[in-house]
Amino acid sequence: MQRQAIAILALLGVFLAGYLTLYHYGYLGSLACGTGGCEKVQTSKYAMFMGLPVALWGVGYYATAAAIAIAGSVGSGPERAWPTTALLVLNGWGVAFSSYLTWLELARIHAICRYCVVSAAAVAVLFGLSAWDWRARASR
What we know:
By secondary structure, this protein is mainly α. The protein has one domain: VKOR domain (de novo design (two linked rop proteins), Up-down Bundle), CATH 1.20.1440.130. A two-stranded antiparallel sheet has the order 1-2. Helix 1 packs antiparallel against helix 5 and helix 4 packs antiparallel against helix 5. The model has no long low-confidence stretch (mean pLDDT 92).
């Protein structure tokens, strides 16, 4: 059950990060944020990582989490241990990177993006579900 929840939440994350990616590349005029903080964060120098928009990295992260969760939920996947371990590691990395990005918003950019807050919360839930799946698998 945890892997299905991870897949659903990760697919929602793909749409969220995709929306921010479309904004970054100029396909959207403005973000529906209401505070102005989203635009400030998305246009800051910290919105790029290794030559790509952070939002595009988010699309890749969420898509990878969804793919692993789906692969671990169909066929012989539920009996295999690798999806559980892969999701725990991936989502642990996601929490660390989201924490860093939140720190950048607070300490360097001095603006909060509501979409980034939602994404960070989603990553934390994904990690929690991954830990729950790992613990349940270890107790069997």
